[in-house]
Specification:
The chain is an alpha+beta fold. It is built from seven helices and four strands; from the N terminus they run H-H-E-H-E-H-E-H-H-E-H. It has a four-stranded mixed sheet, with helices on both faces. Helix 4 links the parallel strand 2 and strand 3. Helix 1 runs antiparallel to helix 2 and helix 5 packs across helix 6. The longest helix has 24 residues. The chain is globular, with a radius of gyration of 16 Å. The N and C termini lie far apart (44 Å). 28% of the residues are buried.
Length: 155
């Protein structure tokens, strides 16, 4: 784990921060940290960075991995996502990640319930807000059965 982050967690605990408050503080810290790294690589990257899993629920625990997803219109921007990941790994973070388009989100969500749950708990961290809105307006309703699947030939 990154020494600076570990020092911050220790400081919160020394101040009496426990449980959900600690998780919330750590989540907010990670939001800023990831957003800064995202901007340092390419603040205009053509994808949105989403928090998923426990991180998406704002229940990030010390020493847990950071679950993220790069949501993109297409796979053209995958190289930029890799550069962001390298910086995150270089910082000492344990990152679990995915790079998906709308169609891939839906396809994977209906193959695996854990993926579906992680997507339902996702939230915006950085990047293209319009793409995040596309996720919320087009993908999320399909996952919650409020909209027909986008994949051709399926209902």
């Amino acid at each position: 784990m990154n020494l600076k982050i570990l020092e911050q967690i220790t400081k919160w605990m020394d101040e009496g921060c426990k449980g959900m408050e600690l998780a919330h503080n750590y989540t907010q810290y990670m939001d800023h940290f990831l957003s800064d790294i995202f901007s340092s690589v390419d603040k205009n990257a053509p994808f949105a960075l989403l928090a998923t899993g426990g991180y998406g629920r704002q229940e990030l625990a010390p020493y847990s991995d950071i679950d993220i997803m790069f949501f993109a219109q297409n796979r053209v921007s995958a190289e930029t996502a890799e550069r962001i990941l390298y910086k995150l790994w270089d910082s000492g973070l344990e990152i679990s990640h995915a790079f998906r388009t709308a169609e891939e989100c839906i396809e994977e969500a209906f193959k695996d319930i854990r993926t579906r749950t992680a997507l339902l708990e996702s939230r915006y961290v950085a990047g293209d807000v319009k793409l995040y809105n596309k996720f919320r307006n087009e993908v999320y309703p399909v996952l919650t059965h409020k909209k027909r699947r986008l994949l051709s030939g399926t209902n």
